[in-house]
Write a structure and sequence with these properties.
Blueprint: E1 3-5, H1 6-24, E2 27-28, E3 43-44, E4 50-55, E5 65-73, E6 78-79, H2 81-87, E7 92-97, E8 102-106, H3 108-118, E9 125-130, E10 136-145, E11 155-158, H4 161-181
Parallel strand pairs: 1-9, 4-7
Antiparallel strand pairs: 2-3, 3-4, 5-6, 5-10, 7-8, 8-11, 9-10
């Protein structure tokens, strides 16, 4: 079984957030004006819509499934993935695969309604994570066949390599800021 390390996972997620913020023209959402950390969403559109961004490390082209996390910490029962996004009234959730530059955008409420039906027929996957201070925890989720949720996708695509060549400086700048903000 693979063990995911929090620090590496966070760095990967920050890079995905930076790339999606630059590509879609989103503003990173890290702190409220009073200095309190924002934990419900990753970015905001110019219209004020809240966006959650998920960076995926598995190879998109080698899997016919999406992995959707339902519980981010089994011990505490913390909701994860689109279920948390739905609970927090997030407007859009973007799944992004940096290695192949694929992105998929969904409305969390529509996605969760479909997933709740689909996962009735699927086994739960339990993934071990190495957290802070080497305290391990388990994430629970489902490998959902792509064709079961593809029709709900609001937007999908592959970011051209040429775009990254032109905008990598801006992605790097956003990434550095996300890393500094913690």
């Amino acid at each position: 079984m693979s063990v995911f390390e929090f620090t590496k996972s966070k760095e990967f997620g920050d890079y995905a957030e930076a790339a999606m913020c630059v590509f879609f023209g989103l503003s990173p959402a890290k702190f409220y004006p009073n200095g309190t950390r924002i934990t419900t969403h990753d970015a905001v559109t110019q219209k004020g819509e809240m966006i959650e961004i998920k960076g995926e490390g598995y190879t998109f082209d080698k899997s016919k499934n999406f992995f959707f996390e339902k519980t981010s910490n089994e011990e505490t029962g913390t909701l994860g993935g689109p279920w948390r996004a739905q609970r927090d009234n997030i407007h859009r959730i973007i799944y992004y695969w940096p290695k192949e530059r694929h992105f998929w955008v969904w409305n969390p409420k529509q996605l969760v309604a479909a997933l709740d039906e689909e996962i009735k027929h699927l086994p739960t996957k339990r993934m071990e994570n190495k957290g802070r201070a080497n305290k391990n925890y388990f994430t629970l989720g489902y490998a959902v066949p792509r064709e079961k949720v593809e029709h709900l996708c609001l937007q999908k695509g592959v970011i051209p390599k040429e775009w990254f060549d032109k905008h990598s400086w801006n992605v790097d700048k956003h990434f550095k800021q996300l890393q500094e903000d913690g």
